Amino acid sequence: MEQITLAKSAGFCFGVKRAIEMAYGQMEKGELTYSYGPLIHNKEVTNDLAEKGLSIIDSLDGITSGTILIRSHGVGKFLYDSIAEKNLGIVDGTCPFVKKIHDIVQAQFDLGKTILLVGDGKHPEVIGINGWCADEAIIVGSVAEAQSLELDETKKYAVVVQTTFRQNLFDEIILAIQKQAVDLEVFQTICSATEKRQAEAAELSQKVDKMIVIGDKKSSNTQKLVEICHKNCKKTIYIETICDLVLNNFEKSDIIGITAGASTPPAIIKEVVVTMADAVENVEMLEDGMSFAQMLEESLVTLHTGDVVKGTVIQVVGEEISVNLGYKSDGVIPRGEFSGDTTVVPSEVVKVGDEIEVFVVRVNDGDGNVLLSRKRIEAQKGLEEIEVAYNEKAVITGLVTEVVKGGLIAVVNGVRVFIPSSQVSNRFIEDLSVFKGQELDFNIIEMDRVKRRYIGGRKALVEKEISAKRAALFETIEAGVKATGTVSRLTDFGAFVDLGGVDGLIHISEMSWGRITNPKEVLKEGQTVEVFILNVDKEKGKISLSLKDSAMNPWKIAVEKYAVGTIVEGKVVRMVPFGAFVELEAGVDGLVHISQIANKHVVKPEDELKVGEVISVKVLEVNADQKKISLSKRQAEAPEEEVAAEEAPVAEEVAVTEEA
After folding, report:
1. Cα distances (angstroms) measured from residue 166 to each of 99, 142, 163, 199, 383
2. I need a surface site. Which of 108, 127, 168, 255 has the fewest CB within 10 A?
């Protein structure tokens, strides 16, 4: 034989391999275990397990103790319920791809949809799937069956497909069903491993003179491989073991292709390949000087704990990633070993077919798999980056993933860096949670690789950044202009507003034309405000601000609005020994002199008035420039003739000041 090519995906799939490992694990424990139906379609494996004590059953009748092993094909809901009722143990070897179909079917059935199940109605996988919709699924196995369906336009339908079904046939069946124009939701549930195996078989069978398909005669997926290969290569041979292979049927010049079903053990595949390679004289040695058997052995890489290798993602189930390493066993990356950033979701980062670099934690994790870590690769790169940043005093970027006691945790390529609260900024920040999920720049101010202690600091960076912003701002800002800022801090005497790296102060007296007692009456932290620049002191680095628009100054129209002689209402807001101040409107107060409170001698203003009281007053004098208004309560209440007699002397008497 001139050339022998073995398909890369030949043999055990992830689900079958997982179920077999579970079975052998039970046998090693010596526990009484029953397989509900043959574990896989392969007599070699099932016979070996039977010799080791695994009993095959098709009913729970008479079973009162022990553990039930669910095979990779899966079973209906009824069996889980029956196992629970009998208080039996259970080891669930259902393929994760099949389990996903169970979940879809149950959810869609609960929504009131009719299930259309594409597949072989006699296959145990299909029977099991049907058990999750009360065995009420409409099973379709061919285009003709799909065309003969009489669906109800008033109902809603959900379509799932057997994991090992041929993709092109499924596509044809869907087209036939869609012609009925019913409410239809299609779920693509063909296993990616099955698709890959079938695609490889189709491609390989087009390039060879003869094609060998290895697998049990009862295996559905192997039969599909035979159908696919036979379309491209009429000399396709279907065997179960090397014993079925007639070597005389092969010529020295033949180009041979080999594939195997998902239930075919590696040992059987290897036996066929090696026997064929060594059967014909003078073809034992390949171009590189090795026999085919040697090449097969060499193709299986050798792994050691601590190795860093590349592999191909073959499965992502429950955020656990299976990786093909070219080793005799596949590798597994648990979610906890995927990334140092706990917020990362593996299924959103990698997909089947991706090539990734991994660290070998253990060659055998106890279940026959290679335990891998991507987090450690990430961390190694992160450590190198951190060390460079520390030595060169360079800026590094990390994602804040946690707020912990005393500071923040930022992740740099999988390495956790602690940033103390005192180093988060150049000022105290009460609520550090605002930084969670943000990327921050910082320096590495301390590191100890032995203790795995990495301390970050951004206080110096913030101060440098603020200095630069301050210099730029003071170059452009000037008194008399408007600016927009954010309230950064409130105090009893005013509010600090961030103008873009530099804080300016709004004194409480500049917050309103009216009277306020606390800045919180007007502003709140984080609020965006428009302010007026009152004064800029570049030497001291201080900026005075105001919320009061001079164009809205109520004193500008006070002379007209409060003309002498008019009677208006106002609220008593403050008492002084020589009278009472009355607010006529926000920002405009007038003084009622003690002599103008009542038509009698008043010892104290409090004897006649109280703060908050609304009273009528007469305007005696207005001085807008000095912001003074003289008022009289007595004259507002006295008869007109009395007012006329007293008006002149009274006006001289009430020289008003703004002293408190």
Report:
1. 19, 11, 9, 10, 48
2. 168
Q: How many CA atoms lie within 13 A of 226 on its CB side?
A: 15
What is the per-residue burial (b if ≥16 Cβ within 10 Å, else e) of 61-100? eebeebebbbbbbbbbbebbebbeeeebeebebbbbbbbb
Considering only 125-129, 193-197, 280-284, 644-648, which range has the smallest mean pLDDT?
A: 280-284
Q: Is the pLDDT assigned to residue 542 strictly greater than 90?
A: no
Q: Which of 125, 200, 337, 378 is catalytic?
A: 125
Q: What domains, with CATH codes, occur in the chain?
A: 3-8+193-280 (3.40.1010.20), 14-92 (3.40.50.11270), 96-190 (3.40.1010.20), 308-373 (2.40.50.140), 397-457 (2.40.50.140), 477-552 (2.40.50.140), 554-653 (2.40.50.140)
User: What φ, ψ does residue 150 adopt, rounded to 5°?
Assistant: -120, 90
For all residues of the chain together, what is the average pLDDT?
84
Task: State phi, psi for 363 to the nearest 5 degrees.
Answer: -70, -30
Its pTM surpasses 0.70:
no
Radius of gyration of the chain (CA): 43
Reduce the DSSP state of residue 358 to 3 states and report it: strand
3-state DSSP assignment of residue 464: helix
Task: Report the percent of the chain where pLDDT is more than 90.
Answer: 33
Residue holding tokens 């526990």? Answer: 31
Which residue matches tokens 């889980």? Answer: 80
pLDDT of amino acid 647:
52
Which residues, other chains included, contact 226 with Cβ-Cβ below 8 Å and sequence gap of 6+? 213, 236, 238
Angle at the Cα of 51 (from 49 to 52), degrees rounded to 5? 65
- Verify whether residue 378 is a known catalytic residue: no
